[in-house]
Amino acid sequence: MRNALLIAGALACAALVVGCGELPQTTFYKQGHYRGKPDALAWDSAAFKGDKLAWEKALKARNNLQNEYERMGN
Amino acid sequence: MARMKFLCDAERCIECNGCVTACKQEHEIPWGVNRRRVVTLNDGMAGEKSISVACMHCSDAPCMAVCPVDCFYKTSEGVVLHDKDLCIGCGYCFYACPFGAPQFPQDGAFGLRGKMDKCTFCAGGPEADNSPAEFQKYGRNRLAEGKLPACAEMCSTKALLGGDGDVVADIYRNRVVKRGKGSEVWGWGTAYGRPEKPATQGGPKS
């Protein structure tokens, strides 16, 4: 009987402590899972045939062409 | 390769709409759908600023978060794309997007809302690369051809930069240094003016 009272008292104390605590207010966002068709990688195209380095090199060259300071020299 | 990003330099954009035209022409986009558009702030007033806006291919894209059929996916280069075969045209992504990027073709007498269409960073969609099906649904896949988005490559003043985020940032940083202005030309002050400071101290002329 005494043990039961002790356990009930402990539970009541725990409930009080939880009531005074602060719970996180932010929403937990779980990333959805894409359910569509799989897409091929850009460098797996006919132009690059899986050569990722060649694709990156081509894109980098194009990227740097946007820098006119480089094109006309400093 | 870092993440693919767009960056529009408001100091350079002259509101020519060349990017909009290039996009429409490249992907044969129908009437009523604008994957890219030019927004002008303080239009008609001295010191007006324009920026070219499309899908920003967000790192934590809200359109992906709200889509009830999970038709969005992100490529390894950080480009946000979607599967039109799954899209139900509900329009949630349009409400969630802070840039108004998702577009819905209007068709028929009752304004039927079609499947969502948006900027693909010229990366096509989940169909065979450069296939007729991909072109019909998503437009041209320039990335698979080793090219950058048509809008950025066609920009006459190079206000709109697109490509590897690190390279784009380097180009812009170099440009800011060459202009002779400091970091204050980045962001809000560039777009909305800096009335509290005279133009001679680095703020845009207004």
Task: Characterize the structure shown.
- The complex is a heterodimer of chains A (74) and B (206).
- Chain A is mainly α and 74 residues long.
- Chain A has helices at residues 2-20, 52-65, 68-71.
- With 206 residues, chain B is α+β, with helices and mostly antiparallel strands.
- Chain B is 25% helix and 15% strand.
- Chain B is built from seven helices and eight strands; from the N terminus they run βαββαββαββααβαα.
- Chain B has helices at 18-27, 62-66, 92-96, 132-138, 150-154, 165-179, 188-192; strands spanning 4-8, 37-41, 49-53, 72-74, 80-82, 106-107, 112-113, 160-164.
- The model of chain B has no long low-confidence stretch (mean pLDDT 86).
- The A-B interface holds A 29, 31-48, 54-56, 58-60, 62-69 and B 1, 64-65, 67, 69-73, 75-77, 81-83, 85-86, 123-130, 141, 143-148, 152-153, 158, 161-164, 167-168, 170-171, 174-175, 178.
Question: What attributes does this structure have?
Answer:
heterodimer; A: 74 residues; mainly alpha; 3 helices; 50% helix; elongated; B: 206 residues; alpha+beta; two-stranded antiparallel ribbon; 8 strands
Instruction: Specify the biggest β-sheet of chain A.
Output: none
Number of helices of chain A: 3
Q: How many domains make up the coordinates of chain B?
A: 1
SSE order of chain A in H/E notation? HHH
Q: What is the molecular shape of chain A?
A: elongated
Counting copies of identical and different chains, the oligomeric state is: heterodimer
- Stretches of chain B where pLDDT is under 50 for at least 5 consecutive residues are none
What would you say about this model in short?
Chain A has 74 residues and is mainly α.
Mind sketching the topology for me?
The complex is a heterodimer of chains A (74) and B (206).
Chain A: H1 2-20, H2 52-65, H3 68-71
Chain B: E1 4-8, H1 18-27, E2 37-41, E3 49-53, H2 62-66, E4 72-74, E5 80-82, H3 92-96, E6 106-107, E7 112-113, H4 132-138, H5 150-154, E8 160-164, H6 165-179, H7 188-192
Antiparallel strand pairs in B: 1-8, 2-3, 4-5, 6-7
